[in-house]
Amino acid sequence: MNIVASLTLLQLFLSAAATVSGNFSTETVQSAAPGDVVLLQCYTGGNLTPVWTTWMKDSHVIASDGELHVDSSAKDPRLTLELNGSLSISKVISEDTGSFLCSSRLPDNRTINAHVLLQVTSGPYNVTTVIYPTIVLPNRTLVTEEGKSVSFKCSTRPSPSQQLNLTFSGASNNNTSLTFTPLPILEYTIENIQPSNQGVYTCSAVNTVSNRMVNNSTELLVYYIPSRRPDCMSMKAQNSSSVQLNCSWFGAYPTPQLRWGKDGDFQVTDSLVVSLNSSTLKDRQTLTCTARHELLKNEKERSCSVTLSLPFPAGEPMVSVLEGTNVTLSCREFTAVPAANTMWRKGQSQEPIVPGSKYVLSVEGPDLKLTIVNISMYDEVYYFCRSENALGVRELEVFLTVKASSSAYTGAVIGVFIAALITGCAFIVAKILYSRRHTICLGGGFMQAEDRGDVVDLVESDDEQIFQDAVPRLPPLTNGRHTTLVQIHRIPSSDDHEVIVETHPEPPEQKDEPIEEKTEESREEVEELVSF
């Protein structure tokens, strides 16, 4: 009862003092973590020492040096009232959170009222980050595969006024905020994760009251392999007695393991180069490189191969050229593995050709060309296109034939003569055929035209008409054949159509037989012939 009465009197006193004497009051907010030392100030307006000061919390007097005294049972040894009226709290606990009221009287009879809100916050505690599905390496680094869906989960022990934030730091070392939440649990998912998502993921828990931050970082690696197979290739070695082979598989993470042959050891490298002695190699031999990776099973190792091959230069074996002109010899070689060294040589002694004004060497893709300027008879020799690699040497022989300039037009003259001869013969034959066209058409044959004695001229008519008439027959010739000349003409008219048959008998040779005896027989034969 005494405490209640004292509090009532204090409240009335503070209200009256604030109303009558122009007093003022302040309100502040302070935060602290458990275990900290907190100083709550009541008067901050100068260096005056208050006459008396009283502090209350939750309607209870907790400290006073004035008329109101604290109950001995309610005293807290952690609380200390300073000379300037401030209240010191050592080893703050979460139960100290609350509203504190202060009232101080200054020597000039002014009364100071203060309201302090104390927030005791803890944490963040136990901030954890879980990333799945992943594989944990011995150094605690997490590993996932390209293309998978990866989930992130951050959490902390519940504490008032906290916020979770997920950030990412990649190869560029730039922190990027992915998401945040005021809840104690944060969830985030990356669909179809890519190598660019490889880096450090940090889950940050922030106490918004004390601004205290706790971080938990996890490194995530994204393993990936190229969709293509490793690349195998042969390279030119400085010494022709050896072959260099290169096997590479770029774009895989982590670095793949490569091995040439079945008996060799795997080496962790992106590109593996080996040098082999040519004495151990042969034409059409196949060499294989095998690649191993974390994402590949042993039965699914990827490989590539190189098939060795001797050179095979190709080109024209014989070239003919006119004296005084230029000629270009071409040699192509692209089948050799490893690539061959190709060069032109001259003569049976195969002297190397030195480029200059006489000989011009040029390369166009796989073609090695030799241009010889101002050909002379001394250039009529063998030329050799020589290709060599570690497996052997092969040559292409080209014989150059040089023709004198005087014989340049011989072929043309012969060609013109033959063409003229063929044209003349064709003209003569055509003329003979044309002159005997009537005899050939009547079926008498080409060489029997002289034996025929009957010539019939037919005039085509627009209207068809069948007629039969008797034609007198001439007396037979001495050869026993009858000769009759018959001309048939058709003259169209408006009403009737007449057919006029003209007979031109050829005078027979004079014989002893009378003409009258043969006339009747001739008529009968003509009637049989002239019938349509």
Automatic annotation (TrEMBL):
Q: Give the range the annotation lists for the signal sequence.
A: 1-18
Instruction: Alphabetically list the UniProt keywords.
Output: Disulfide bond, Glycoprotein, Immunoglobulin domain, Membrane, Signal, Transmembrane, Transmembrane helix
Q: How does it sit in the membrane?
A: Single-pass type I membrane protein
Residue ranges, compositional bias (Acidic residues) = 522-532
Per the UniProt entry, what is one GO biological process? synapse assembly
One example GO MF annotation: cell adhesion molecule binding
A GO CC term assigned to this protein in UniProt: cell-cell junction
Q: Which Gene3D superfamilies match?
A: Immunoglobulins (2.60.40.10)
| Compartments in which it is found | Membrane
The organism's superkingdom is given as Eukaryota
Q: Where is this region: Disordered?
A: 496-532
The family database entries (Pfam families) matched by this protein are listed as: I-set (PF07679), Ig_3 (PF13927)
Q: Where is the composition biased (Basic and acidic residues)?
A: 496-521
* Segments crossing the lipid bilayer: 408-430
What are the residue boundaries of the Ig-like domain, all occurrences included?
Answer: 35-113, 133-215, 230-309, 313-401
> Where mainly found?
membrane
Keyword check for Nucleotide-binding, yes or no.
no
Matching PANTHER family: NEPHRIN, V-SET AND IMMUNOGLOBULIN DOMAIN-CONTAINING PROTEIN 10
In its UniProt entry, what is this protein called? V-set and immunoglobulin domain containing 10
> What's the source species for this entry?
Poecilia formosa (Amazon molly)
